[in-house]
Amino acid sequence: MSRTLVQPVGQKRLTNVAVVRLRKHGQRFEIACFPNKVLSWRARVEKDLDEVLQSHTVYSNVSKGVLAKSKDLVKAFGTDDQTKICIEILEKGELQVSGKEREAQLSSQFRDIATIVMEKTINPETRRPYTITMIERLMHEIHFAVDPNLTSKEQALKVIKKLIDHFPIKRAPLRVRFTAPKSNFAGLMEKVAEWNATVISKDESGTQPSIVCEIEPSILHSCEERLKDVQGRVEVLSVSAHAEGGPSVEHHDNVEVPQAAPAKESDAVAEISETMQKQSISSESQGNAQGKQQRRCKECDVLVDDKLYREHCKSGWHKHNYTRHKNGLLPLSQEECMVEMELADSKKDLKDYDF
């Protein structure tokens, strides 16, 4: 007695694939490829066709597993050689990207853009770079959306312009060396003063004295043009003056910082602490006073009444200490936690962040 294999009617034969589609002579032809391999093939990074194609087969509908008819292939491509047709579709066809794959590509490009922004910007008060996490958060706050049709560098420059309008952030200066003949060195110094350049060092010995400065990136091209008047030239030493471990960071460590901000912060801490002291918020003291069964929260390092433990885990205090615990930091008391959270909310202008 023979048995028939029954399959679901709506079953998809091939899933989790990158589909490349080509319309020719009124017919639709598709091929099934491995995810993230089509672009590598077109960029000539991947040269093994078997690493790109899931099968050397031409379909009329990949998702339903419907194969293309031989007569349609001959009519459209002039041959029924499946491999040659697959290569042509792979080169000229339109890539149908799945939702997860598109999301992964956008997420990766978002990270690349944030990295470029981090490398090209500094905090104008501390003259140090922001962290990559902070840059990503600022990009989310200005509702930045990745455009897959533009390069990461183009979008990074647009992001920097938007961030400058809303947050204390500026382009990192370029470190350059200006060189001119000794007879024109005085004229070079005048131009440096006009450009508001920060002088790092000068070398007036020899026939070609030089001066090392930090300038705004936007005036580099104009500097090159105006140096022709004094027969000078410019050499870029560093595209980012805040490079980690670089001399520019050390140079600005001694910049005087106004002391008013810490005083305001201390007043805020004192005010919030005084407010918190008026509230009965210590779970440990509550449990001891009532003499009920208690559980210890390892993230907050306190004893909490068994019936209140669930509510404690939902509190902002516990969530804040949970984050600190994952980062290897010591827990804060509820008073300290509330003070820290209140201060964070009061620093929306980001001027008190120091990296």
Automatic annotation (TrEMBL):
InterPro entries on file: Ribosome_mat_SBDS_CS, Ribosome_mat_SBDS_N_sf, Sdo1/SBDS, Sdo1/SBDS-like, SDO1/SBDS_C, SDO1/SBDS_central, Sdo1/SBDS_central_sf, SDO1/SBDS_N
Complexes and interactors: Associates with the 60S ribosomal subunit.
Q: Which protein are we looking at? A: Ribosome maturation protein SBDS
Q: Which Gene3D superfamilies match?
A: 3.30.70.240, Ribosome maturation protein SBDS, N-terminal domain, SBDS protein C-terminal domain, subdomain 1
Chain intervals for the UniProt region annotation (Disordered): 273-292
Q: Where is the Ribosome maturation protein SDO1/SBDS central domain?
A: 111-172
Ribosome maturation protein SDO1/SBDS C-terminal domain: from which residue to which, for each copy? 175-239
Q: Where is the Ribosome maturation protein SDO1/SBDS N-terminal domain?
A: 16-102
Q: Name one Pfam family in it.
A: SBDS_C
Extent of Polar residues compositional bias: 274-292
Which biological process annotations from GO are given for this protein?
cytosolic ribosome assembly
Q: Cellular location of this protein?
A: Cytoplasm; Nucleus
Major localization class: cytoplasm
Q: Name one GO cellular component term.
A: nucleus
Top-rank taxon of the source lineage equals Eukaryota
User: Per its UniProt record, what PROSITE patterns does this chain match?
Assistant: UPF0023
Instruction: Please tell me the species this chain comes from.
Output: Panicum virgatum
Q: Which family does it belong to?
A: Belongs to the SDO1/SBDS family.
Keywords assigned by UniProt, alphabetized: Cytoplasm, Nucleus, Ribosome biogenesis
